[in-house]
## 1
Amino acid sequence: MTRRLAVGLLIISLAQFLVPLLPVLGLGESIGSRATSGGRPPELPPGPFFSIWSVIFLAYFIFALLAVLKPSYLERRLGGALLLAGVGNIAWMLSAQLVGNQLLDFLLLWPILAFAWTGARRLHRMGGFDGTWRRANACVLTGLWSGWIAVAVSISVPATWRGLSGLGPSDDVWISLWMALVSAGLLAWLFASRVSASVLFFAALAWGLAGVALNNWYLTGMHWLSGASLLAGGYILWRRARHGARAAFE
């Protein structure tokens, strides 16, 4: 790993903490504020569930700090992909705050997913967790990030569909919900069958789907949708536990 790449990782790690604070300075809107401006959609987890980003950003910062102070093969192998994922994440946050175009935001999520999953695949091929805290941090970073960006993509599918169709958050709620749930299921299958055996991916995915269920139970009052979210999430977790993962080694 070059010194320039390591410093870039550290800069990006700090920027990911700072960019969400731009609305405090009067620049743009808070991320997610537009999603509830016309009502609450069925697929959106409550705000506290997005606190998982703080864990991801902290793990990213630790990874970047190690890359600068004491780089190893781990940082050299994962650094390039995670740097690009971080750059994509900042671009997405700036777009969500300053531009507010749902289609653009949706398209910007895909490079983040691609590079986060690349990092997860490379870590899986290295053997995953090896008992060291350095490797544990990398597992947390790649696993949670890969899972949560899959949640972000999944809940953006119906939001983008509504934006292109001119529908509101309370229109065709069953279609919106199933768009998100089917997307989450397909991404979970793809990750486990082609990318990595990380269980933290499924922890992040389960966290997001639990948020969808609570959103429909307490905030929208659509209890049937809450039950469907729990059933879909339970099936995804059961399938992972029952069939395991046959990923990057093959």
## 2
Amino acid sequence: MDYSLLVKAGFMGFAACVGAICLVFFIAGNILKINRVRFNSVYLLAGIVSFLTVYLLLHVKIRSSGIEAPQIFLTGVIGGWLAGVLFGVTQFKRLLISFLQS
């Protein structure tokens, strides 16, 4: 088992997830002017957008790279995505709320 591929894929999934969540909250707060009361709704939307981002990233990366063990890569990316979603809800919540309008 290639642990370096698993760790790299995990970091890639985490970074893609947190980046997509931040982008959704930035757009929702600054362009759409959504207030802080709607945090749960915006976070659900951000979770869906981050999943679609990670799915497209997986699809492109596995096809273009020709990875020998796509199951290991898939496991790492999905694990990183789940870690990013949990990180966003627990540790990153204050920053995400600050993106929304008061």
## 3
Amino acid sequence: MKKAARYLTMLLVLFLSCSCTVVTTVETETYDLSEKVFYNTADRFLDSDDAKIWFGKDHSFVLTDSSADGADEITGTWEINENVCTLNAENSHLGFSGKILFEIRDDNTLTLKTSVHDSRSDDVYSTTRPERKPIQDDTSKTYYNVNNNDCKLTLNDDKTFVLTENNGGNEIYVNGVYGLAGNVYMFSNFEEFNDWNGEKVYNFEFFIFDEDTVILMEDLFASSRDDVFTTDGKMPEDFNEKQIDEKNFMDLWVHEPMEEIPDEYLPSVKFYTDGTFVFTENLYSGLGELKGTYEATDNGFICHVDDASQIQGFKGGDVKTIEFEYTAPGTMMLKTEICMSRSGELFYQAH
């Protein structure tokens, strides 16, 4: 019995000694992003510092971006898995949170896969700083309201401004600082003031139509939303509201056909390049608009309503957020109840 056991043991040792294990090593490419700054190369940024990201050796990051609400600085940690760099946003001046994904093309080139404020999915980031011509070489200039030359806006080289508003001989002066976000001037006044409706104004914006023309985007003490300001105080030749709309217009989506509703009365939403939107709703007794700012995401749009004054008293007058979700190319589904427009209904891309 002992001999048999010893024999079996010898066979087992012999078998194990003859066995071999084949180890297959899969080489994965490694990337070095540390201590580098990547700049967004999209043409929509007039200033190369509007959107960029810095990667730290300790796997921290600092991402800056512009938005309709001003500049944002997002910080947190980063990690790489194969060719995907994931940013874990932990702090943000504007409350941005979640994960931001980049596809790594090489050590000096990234492709954004998650929209962040004015930066959009598929924007390319590069360590080579883009060369862009500023919208104007000299920002020390004065723009006059073409409807009232006593209302004027002066921009200084040191990024300060002076707004002069004259309402029937009652004149006020507003001082503060300004910045550039895409094609919009963002103004932050040192002291609040009342607009002509009696509402407090803490900051305001002008859309840049061209080098010598800016368009007011909200009401002030004497000036009104959509007022045109020019460097000579005169309306440009052949200038009209349609030009403003076309200059700033990006995308139009129209509600799916509805029985007994003519096409011109279907609900629709326009998205503009300055980060604003206008949702035109059918109120059964007429049309009304909801206005505000939007975020473009991989899944659709998130619209933040700032002005619903035209639909007060109707269903949807208290809506703060309108959400859309892509269902197919050129098609998205409304996820919010408004008035005639209901959650689950489709909007089709028309432009």
## 4
Amino acid sequence: MGGYLIPANSKKSMLIFGIFNKTDLILFGLGVGASLLLLMLLPVDELKYAIMALVPGVTTGVLVIPIPNYHNIRTIIGLAYTFYTTRQQYIWKGWCFLNGEEDSEQIHK
């Protein structure tokens, strides 16, 4: 093909603040909005109501926390769901001399 190397951070420029995409910000905004609405509606002078009001914001915040090797927690949950709910067929084609196409005895000659 072109033989070009893509820098590891090339997709970062496509993200908002270099961390979030639109879906992340919408999800987090909805969670924080729900928390603010619950804080106004519930009697938060009691601890259990304060915790109930903060759960949507904290939950969505945890889902969009960036982590190494993945985009965020939401991505890991989606990948795990896809892995365990669909039939997987991985065709390995790696840095191998034969790629499984010929007899492996030729390597030892």
